[in-house]
Structure formats: structure tokens, C-alpha cells
Write a sequence for this structure.
């Protein structure tokens, strides 16, 4: 969990530092006050990137050369880790973990597993397969030790194969990569499949506790039909691949199909029901992480009150209470979310024009 965070020249904040509650932190304020920027700073500390923009220089305050976010993280064994991230407008990023320079952000994600639920989370239901593959990758990365090595090797092999196709190289130079590609694909597919099989009962259990929806189904699609082997499909579709200049089958085309009563969920469920489904999917990921690895994720939930009535908001808060995890929530007014959260487990922050008031 996060025990301290300090940010300088981040978005509209010249500087802020807080010691969050180990349980519930409600950040309220008017639209545009900077509530989401606080969540963004926590997310940036966890992954060294923003969830609001791919141009991370946008997080740097106007006319400033760089931004710095520092935090102290405590694991379940009470061991503390100091993390500092500096992002320069020139594009350079420095990550320090316990004072030592880290070359990648991979280790950050393991230190502070983070579940983000915000308006963009609707992409899980409405968006293309890429959003759902990202969802699968998050879960597989955190619960399967071999995943990141296999995934990286697969991405390198896929890139080489696609490059050969785009350059219209002779077929033998494309097929040079096929044996490695098939082996890595099958290994990655087994990780995804095993993860989804464990995730489905968790989702079903949570959706029942949040709503009366019945008829939800999740189906993993590997990126090719298993009626034929992947090796066979590559060999017998070489002309199509050469024409389209890309690899047509494999885990890079995997998907998690979300249906309700046999039809795509987005075609039947209301906006509020979709939001409850998103909560069920992402809360299930964190619950499975805790069950399989013994690690608790932190939750960043932006504008939870939108499109949910008081009854469903209360059900979500009650479920979050039962998880014994650290939660950061944003809202316009505290009464939208506080419900039955024990006062000793709750800290409230009011944000106005890039400044904090604590325990309002």
C-alpha cells in the first residue's frame, strides 16, 4: 500500500504531499479542480506513465522543465520501498527504487499493483480486443511468473515476422520465424487460458453480489480456431498474410468475449449495468491476485458515483470494505460515497485550484 506520496509541478499542482489512509481515501472537489490528477499521480508512481495521455510531457506543469513524484510503499510484510520518478519535458524519464536507478518500469508494477477504474474502462466492453488483451496481460503478468519473459519473446518474434511480411521478403524468410512463433504462441495461450478459467468464477461471484444480472458469460478466444493447428493455419494462409503484410493468427489477436444472454454485453446492458460489470471484472482481477499470490492491489476509482444510483454505490463500497485493501475514490461531494465506511479507516481530501484540504 501507499503510505506517502509527494508530487511537484504535476498537472495543476505546484506541489502536494499526503499520507493516505491505508484503507479509504475520498478526494472530492468541483469538476476541473484536480481530483483526477491526484489519481494520475498515484498511477504515475506505480507505472511511470499517465492514464490520461500518451504524451507524458502533458503532466508537467506549464513552463516547468520537469515533474517529480516520490512515494513510500509498504508491502504486506511491512517492508518499505522508496520510489521516485522524474519526467523531463525533453522526454527523459528517471526511475529510482530505494535510491538505485531502474532501467524499466516493470519492477514498479510489481511493487504497487494498481487497478484503475475510470470512464475509459468502458473500453473493456465497447472497445476493440486490444483493451481486453491489456486486461488479460495485467492479470497474467501479476500471477504467472513466466509470463513477462514469454510475452517479450513473443513480441520480438511477431515483430520480426511482420517486418518480413511488410518488406515482401521471400516466403522462406517469413517462415523462418514460424517454429519459434508457434511455440511461443502456444505457451502464451496456455497462460491466458489458465488465467481466464480462474477469473470467471471470481467475476460471477462478484457480479451476483453487486447486481441481479443473470446470464453473463466470458469466453476466451485465443486468436485462432483450434479446429486447426496454428502451424497449419500459418502455412495455408501464407498468400493472405503476404497480401495483408501482417500475421493473421496468434495471441496478438486474442480476445475476451463478454456476452449477456448470448449477445454482446454492450448491445443489451444499460450504461449503469455496464459500469457494474466493469467493477466486477476489475475487482475480480484484484481478488484473484490476492488469492494466488498473496498481494493486494490498490484501487484508483475515478467518478464512481456517475451513472450509479445510491443503492449500487453502497454495494460497491461495501464490497471494497470487505476486501481490506487501499482505495482512492473521487467524487463531487463526500456524501456520494462515504456510506458505512468506519471513520477511523477514512480520510477525506478536498481539492480546489491545485490545493488540498485534509479531513474535511
Amino acid at each position: 500500500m501507499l503510505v506517502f506520496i509527494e508530487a511537484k509541478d504535476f498537472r495543476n499542482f505546484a506541489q502536494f504531499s499526503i499520507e493516505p489512509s491505508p484503507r479509504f481515501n475520498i478526494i472530492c472537489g468541483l469538476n476541473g479542480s484536480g481530483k483526477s490528477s491526484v489519481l494520475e499521480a498515484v498511477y504515475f508512481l506505480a507505472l511511470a506513465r499517465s492514464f490520461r495521455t500518451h504524451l507524458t510531457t502533458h503532466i508537467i506543469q506549464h513552463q516547468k522543465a520537469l515533474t517529480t513524484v516520490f512515494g513510500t510503499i509498504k508491502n504486506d510484510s511491512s517492508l518499505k520501498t522508496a520510489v521516485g520518478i522524474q519526467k523531463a519535458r525533453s522526454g527523459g524519464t528517471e526511475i529510482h527504487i530505494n535510491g538505485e536507478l531502474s532501467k524499466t518500469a516493470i519492477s514498479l508494477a510489481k511493487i504497487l499493483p494498481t487497478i484503475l477504474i475510470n470512464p475509459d474502462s468502458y473500453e473493456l466492453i465497447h472497445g476493440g480486443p486490444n483493451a481486453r488483451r491489456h486486461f488479460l496481460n495485467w492479470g497474467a503478468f501479476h500471477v504467472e511468473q513466466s509470463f513477462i519473459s514469454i510475452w517479450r519473446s513473443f513480441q520480438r518474434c511477431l515483430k520480426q515476422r511482420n517486418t518480413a511480411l511488410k518488406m515482401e521478403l521471400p516466403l522462406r524468410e517469413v517462415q523462418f520465424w514460424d517454429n519459434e512463433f508457434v511455440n511461443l504462441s502456444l505457451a502464451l495461450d496456455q497462460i491466458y487460458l489458465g488465467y481466464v478459467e480462474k477469473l470467471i468464477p471470481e467475476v460471477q461471484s462478484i457480479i451476483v453480489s453487486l447486481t441481479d444480472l443473470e446470464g453473463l458469460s466470458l469466453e476466451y478466444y485465443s486468436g485462432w480456431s483450434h479446429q486447426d493447428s496454428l502451424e497449419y493455419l500459418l502455412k495455408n494462409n501464407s498468400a493472405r498474410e503476404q497480401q495483408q503484410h501482417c500475421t493473421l493468427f496468434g495471441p496478438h489477436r486474442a480476445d475476451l468475449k463478454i456476452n449477456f444472454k448470448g449477445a454482446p454485453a454492450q448491445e443489451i446492458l444499460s450504461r449503469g449495468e455496464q459500469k457494474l460489470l466493469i467493477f466486477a471484472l476489475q475487482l475480480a482481477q484484484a481478488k484473484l491476485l490476492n488469492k494466488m499470490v498473496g498481494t493486494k492491489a490498490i484501487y484508483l476509482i475515478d467518478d464512481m458515483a456517475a451513472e450509479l444510483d445510491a443503492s449500487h454505490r453502497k454495494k460497491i463500497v461495501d464490497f471494497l470494505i470487505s476486501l481490506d485493501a487501499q482505495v482512492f475514490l473521487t467524487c463531487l461531494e463526500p456524501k456520494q460515497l462515504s456510506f458505512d465506511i468506519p471513520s477511523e479507516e477514512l480520510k477525506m481530501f478536498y481539492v480546489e485550484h491545485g490545493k488540498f484540504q485534509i479531513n474535511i
